[in-house]
Amino acid sequence: MATVEYLHIAKTYPNGTRALEDLNLSVEDGEMMVLVGPSGCGKSTALRLLAGLDPSSGGELRIDGRRVNECAPQHRNIAMVFQNYALYPHMTVRRNLEFPLRMMKLPGPERSRRIEETSRMLGISDLLERRPRQLSGGQRQRVAMGRALVRKPRVFLMDEPLSNLDMKLRTRIRSEIAGLQKRLGITTIYVTHDQVEAMTLGDRIAVLKDGRLQQCGPPQELYDQPANTFVGAFLGNPGMNIFHAWAGSGTAALQLAGGSWQIPLGPLLRRKPKLAQYVGHPLLAGLRPEAFSPWQTPAAAVLIESVESLGHERLVHFVPPGATPGAKSETLVARLPGPQAEQPGQHIELGFDTGQLHLFTHEGDAIV
Amino acid sequence: MKRLLTPLTYLCLLLCGLLFISPVGFLLIGSLKPDDLVLVESGGWRALWPTSASLENYRDVFTRVDFTRYLLNSLFINGMILGTGLLVNSIAGYSFARLPWRGRGLLFNLVLAVMIIPLEAIAVPLFYIVSLLGWRDTYLVQILPFIANAFSIYLFYTYFIGLPRELEEAARIDGAGVVRTFIDIIVPNAKPVFASVAILTFLTQWGAFLWPLLVTSSEAVRPLPLAIATFHGLPPLRWGDLFAFGVMMVLPILSVFLLFQRLFVRGVAATGIKG
Amino acid sequence: MPDRKSSSHAGRGLTAFLLSAPALLGLLLFVLLPFLLAAALSLTNLRLGSPLPLEWMGLEQYRRILHDPTFRHALLNNLLFVVTVVPVQTVLALALAVLLNQRLGAIAWFRVLFFMPVVFPLSLVAVIWVLIFAPGPDGPMNALLELISFGAWTPRDFLHDEQLALSAIMLTSIWQGTGFQMVVILAGLQAISAELNEAATIDGAGCWQRFWFVTLPQLRNTLIFVVLVTTILAFRLFDQVQIMTQGGPHDATTTVMFEAVQTAFSRQQIGRGAAMTVVMFLVVLLLSLLQRRIARQQREVS
Question: Is the pLDDT of residue A129 over 60?
Answer without folding.
Answer: yes
